[in-house]
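Q: What residues go here?
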């Protein structure tokens, strides 16, 4: 999150004001389609309450930085992707705990205030710190930012790997429903994220961007937030999600890029 903040400035958020409609539409897709898809998937595959909570957390989290790379691969709009990622991440401070509390079954006690504090500490504070560093130490920030994407990949892999290892018994007993529910969640996100913008007449590049931003969530954030609630097993869907959405997004981006090249030929 500090790395993301070091690539942002106040001017980036002013850009949102220049494109309020498309950014707002895209962020709405993220925070409406994905939470509802998570709720539906958890019920279709009859996930236990703890796993359902983890899946809903994935659905209510903002877009991740991996979406920006997949957007580049897909010949979509990288500037729009960055705007949506940064906007949804800031809004997640309020929306993630609120939506999670609203959608979670009553058999699981979700401490909304604790979730808000965790989201603020994991999202808002480090991004603000990164932006301050970018403003006052721009040369240092630019140097560090060239290494943060790779570092983030390593850190996410370690986080998710440790979750899978420590919850292997849950995966052995409920692994298939978890994988299928996560796969359904992200597939619906990619599909609906393309379908609804296309109905509004947005360009192909814009539809691809919103599709990627909707389908690819910040799964590592979902894992950390689930851990802060202390509900055993709630971190598992986030760990599985990190692999699933990256695979779907990369495959989809490759197909779109291949189709564009075929048309040029």
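A:
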């Amino acid at each position: 999150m500090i790395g993301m903040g070091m690539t942002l400035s106040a001017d980036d958020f002013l850009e949102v004001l220049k494109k309020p409609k498309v950014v707002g539409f895209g962020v709405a897709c993220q925070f409406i389609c994905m939470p509802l898809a998570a709720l539906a998937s958890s019920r279709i595959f009859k996930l236990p309450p703890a796993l359902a909570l983890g899946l809903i957390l994935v659905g209510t989290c903002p877009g991740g930085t991996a979406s920006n790379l997949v957007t580049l691969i897909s010949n979509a709009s990288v500037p729009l992707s960055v705007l949506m990622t940064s906007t949804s991440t800031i809004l997640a401070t309020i929306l993630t705990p609120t939506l999670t509390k609203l959608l979670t079954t009553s058999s699981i006690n979700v401490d909304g205030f604790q979730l808000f504090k965790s989201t603020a500490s994991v999202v808002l504070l480090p991004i603000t710190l990164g932006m301050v560093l970018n403003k006052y130490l721009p040369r240092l920030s630019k140097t560090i930012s060239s290494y943060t994407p790779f570092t983030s990949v390593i850190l996410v892999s370690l986080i998710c790997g440790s979750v899978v290892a420590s919850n292997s018994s849950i995966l052995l007993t409920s692994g298939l429903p978890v994988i299928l529910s996560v796969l359904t969640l992200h597939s619906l996100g990619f599909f609906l994220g393309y379908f609804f913008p296309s109905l509004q007449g947005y360009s192909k590049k814009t539809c691809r961007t919103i599709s990627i931003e909707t389908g690819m969530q910040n799964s590592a954030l979902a894992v950390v937030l689930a851990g802060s609630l202390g509900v055993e097993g709630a971190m598992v869907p986030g760990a599985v999600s990190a692999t699933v959405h990256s695979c779907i997004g990369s495959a989809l981006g490759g197909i779109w890029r291949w189709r564009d090249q075929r048309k040029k030929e």
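A: Context that may help when evaluating the design: The first helix runs from residue 2 to 5. The mean pLDDT is 84.
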